[in-house]
Design goal:
Largest sheet: 3 strands, parallel
CATH topology of the largest domain: Alpha/beta knot
Structural class: mainly alpha
Strand content: 5-15%
CATH architecture of the largest domain: 3-Layer(aba) Sandwich
Order of helices and strands: HEHHEHEHEHEHHHH
CATH class of the largest domain: Alpha Beta
Distance between the termini: 51 Å
Length: 249
C-alpha cells in the first residue's frame, strides 16, 4: 500500500489478505496514526497487520523507496481506476483475471495506490503491468480494500492453496527456461531496447514517437508474460541485427 490515508483501509486490506492467503503486507509512508482500533478492521487478519513491513518516509522519498521495494520482486502490478490515456501508455490496463495467472506463478508485488490520489506517473512507470477493475462508468472508483479483494479472489480461484507472491518455484512449468523471465532480465532488456531505439532512430523519428514505441513494446511483453527462453531469443536476434547494421555502415 502506498501512503494509505486511513488505518481502516490498512486493516481491511490485511483482512482480505488473510481471507485469500496472500503473502506479506508492506505499507509505504502511511499517513494515519496507529491505534488499537486498526485491529478491529483487520479482524482475524491481525497477524498480517502486526507482521507488516512499515516504511516511514516523507512524500519526496516515496518514489525512491518504492523503486527499492519493487526491485525485490519478479513482477510488480499496479492498480488504477483511471481510464486509459493515449498520451500515457504506461497506464494502459488489463483486467484482474488476465493478471492473476502471473501473480500466482512468480514472486509478485501487488501495489495499491492512495485512496484519494492513486499512484503517480513515476510510480506507475516503475511497475510492469497495470490492472483496472471494470465497473459502472458513472462511478468506477472502488475502495482500495474492495479492489484488493477482487484481485486476490481471482488469484485464489486459480490456486486455492497457493499464496500470492509465493515465488517462482511454484510455477507449473517443466524447466527454468520456460519460466517467466526474471524482472532483472526484463528491466535490462527494456533499458537496452530503449537506448538502442533512441540511438538508431533519432534521425528518423521524434522523441515523443520513440517514447511511445518503447512503451508499447514494454506493454506487449509484460502482458504476454515473456519467458526466459523467449526473451533470450528475441534479445539475441535484435542484438545481431544491430551489429549487422553497424557493419553495413
Amino acid at each position: 500500500m502506498i501512503s494509505p490515508k486511513t488505518f481502516g483501509n490498512a486493516g481491511f486490506v490485511a483482512r482480505c489478505m488473510k481471507n485469500f492467503g496472500a503473502g506479506n503486507l508492506a505499507i509505504l509512508a502511511p499517513r494515519y496514526e496507529v491505534n488499537d482500533d486498526i485491529h478491529g478492521f483487520a479482524m482475524h487478519g491481525r497477524d498480517v497487520l502486526d507482521e507488516a513491513t512499515i516504511i516511514n518516509c516523507g512524500e519526496a522519498e516515496i518514489t525512491a523507496q518504492f523503486a527499492e521495494l519493487a526491485r525485490k520482486y519478479e513482477l510488480v502490478v499496479a492498480t488504477t481506476a483511471r481510464p486509459p490515456n493515449r498520451g500515457k501508455l504506461h497506464r494502459v490496463p488489463i483486467p484482474p483475471r488476465d493478471a492473476a495467472p502471473r501473480l500466482v506463478s512468480t514472486k509478485s508485488l501487488l501495489v495499491l495506490g492512495r485512496e484519494d490520489t492513486g499512484m503517480t506517473d513515476e510510480e506507475m512507470k516503475a511497475c510492469d503491468v497495470v490492472i483496472t477493475i471494470p465497473g459502472n462508468p458513472e462511478y468506477p472508483t472502488m475502495n482500495v480494500s474492495h479492489a484488493a479483494a477482487i484481485v486476490l479472489y481471482e488469484c485464489w480461484l486459480l490456486h486455492p492453496s497457493l499464496p500470492v507472491g509465493c515465488g517462482r518455484h511454484f510455477a507449473t512449468v517443466a524447466t527454468e527456461e520456460f519460466l517467466p523471465a526474471s524482472r532483472e532480465a526484463r528491466v535490462q532488456f527494456h533499458e537496452w531496447f530503449e537506448n538502442t531505439v533512441f540511438k538508431h532512430l533519432a534521425r528518423a523519428s521524434n522523441e515523443d514517437r520513440m517514447e511511445k514505441f518503447v512503451a508499447v513494446v514494454k506493454n506487449v511483453l509484460e502482458r504476454a508474460g515473456v519467458t526466459t527462453r523467449e526473451l533470450s531469443i528475441m534479445s539475441g536476434f535484435l542484438r545481431k541485427l544491430e551489429s549487422s547494421q553497424a557493419n553495413i555502415k
